[in-house]
Sequence to fold (159 residues):
Amino acid sequence: MSRIVVGLLALLLAGCGARVSELPSPSPANFPGIVSALSDAGIVVSDQVSGDAGCKDPQLVPTAISFTAVGLDQLAPVRIHIYIFADAATWSRLSSSVSQCALSFVTDPATYDSVDPSPYVAAGQGPWGTKFQDTLRQVLTTAAGDGGNGSDGGGGGNP
Fold:
């Protein structure tokens, strides 16, 4: 019995010796994780539609989810399209396509708003409230983890 306890303690202590720099970077959160974080930050999400890019771009449709959001200083509900790219390389290749796609769903291009921490782009008709937009950016940046860079550290986006 004591050998088992000693062995378990040795394993526990060995795990405590791992350096933080050796731990893998956090992976980007999925949509339910983003919604949960937004809710915790005071933004209510409803009416989610998977595959709704707002346009017919075949490269954006599989990455897209539209939703309605309200909260903080955004008193009127706004429709937002979020594009969740597979990784930083895909984000680098496709994120610039979102503004072209947005021409299909915004009513006033002069007040189009977006936030785009890799591997996400969230876009919609603005103007969005300042606190709402800042919180959306902060939540997505935190949710992005390593920005979709994976273990190789390649691609654009977050450090």
